Amino acid sequence: MIQSTFNWYHGEIFEAKFILGFGIFLIMASLLFYYLGNTPAAKALLLPLAVTGFIFLSIGSNMVYSNTKKIETLQAQYDNNPTEFHQSEIQRVEDFQYLYPMSLAISLVSFLVALGLLYFVKNIHGQAVAIALILLGTVFAGIDYFSKERAAIYYNQLKETE
C-alpha cells in the first residue's frame, strides 16, 4: 500500500515538472515574440503569455516542493500507524475531489472569456489576452485530465487494500 502512495506522489512531481517546464516555455516564448516579432500583435503577446507562464511556473514549483517534502515523511507516518495512514489517505483523496469540477469550470470560463474577447474586442491586446486564456484553459484541462485519472487509480488501490 505504501508503494502506491509513493507512486502517487512521484506522479504528482512528474506532472508538476511538466507544468513548471511549460511555464518556463511560455515566459521564454513571450520574450521571443516581443524581441523577435515583427508585428504589433506579436509584441502584444509579451504580457499575457508572461503572466500565464508565471502562473504555471508558480503552480509547478509549488507542487514539486510540497510533494517532495511530503515524500520525506511518508514512510515514518506509515510505520507509525499503517491503519490510520491508510484511512487518512482515503479521506485526503476524497477531500480534493471537488477540485476537478472547479478546474473544469476554470477552463470553461477561460474559453468563454477568450471567445468573447476574440469576437467583441478588435484590438491586439485583447486578442493577445484571449490567446493566453485559451492556453490557460487548455493546460488546466490537461492537468485535470491526468490528475483525475491518477487519483482514481490511487483511490481504487486504497479501497482494494482496505
Description of the structure:
This protein is mainly alpha-helical. Helix content is 91%, strand content 0%. It has 6 helices and no strands. The radius of gyration is 19 Å and the shape is elongated. It starts with a helix and ends with a helix. The model has no long low-confidence stretch (mean pLDDT 93).
Write a brief structural summary.
Helix content is 91%, strand content 0%. It has six helices and no strands.
Key words describing this protein structure:
162 residues, mainly alpha, 0% strand
Topology overview:
Elements: H1 2-36, H2 40-44, H3 46-80, H4 82-95, H5 99-120, H6 124-160
Q: Strand tally, please?
A: 0
Radius of gyration over all CA atoms, rounded: 19 Å
Helix content: over 70%
Structural class: mainly alpha
